[in-house]
Amino acid sequence: MSTRKPKFRPEAWLASLALIAICLISLGNVIVRYATDASFAFTEEFSVFFLVLLTFAGAAVAARHNQHIRIELVEHHLPKSLLKVVYVLQWLAGMIVLGITCWYGAIFALEEYQWESLSPGLGLPNWIYVAWLPLMAAAIMIRITQNLVDRLRGKQDEEVIHES
Predict the structure, then answer these.
(1) Is residue 131 part of a domain?
(2) HEC string for 109-121
(3) Where does the Tripartite ATP-independent periplasmic transporters DctQ component domain start and stop, copy by copy (predicted)?
(4) Any idea which of 24-28, 95-99, 118-122, 149-153 has the lowest mean pLDDT?
(5) For residue 118, what are the β-bridge partners?
(6) Structural domain range at position 14
């Protein structure tokens, strides 16, 4: 049994709810398709949205707990003084990529709102879907910053067991 503390964070709850929604929507669609030879029109549009939401929320949780896939060989063979430099460089690279994602995602969401674009499947406003992109990118930025602070202070979560 694991001794790790549970991860009760908003992103974890959001990821869980998104996964539950995907499962329920897909199951409902399969049952209706089997029973009636027709399917719900909204399932693909909502499933894709929830899958993207699940991905970003899961990335935020992983970023907070230092569980992202990365090359650890360099980290394991550096002296502690250089290790902190690597941590800051990793953080900086993440902040640049996520900052660009957040910036252009916000511009895109604003344009979708201003243009009153509608989704092709259900005709819902596209900005409802797109607005989550900068919000979740900002959440990941916050979590990688928290992780950097912990790593610089020497406080780290238990190592993740990599099974291969």
Answers:
(1) yes
(2) HHHHHHHCCECCC
(3) 22-153
(4) 118-122
(5) 125
(6) 10-152
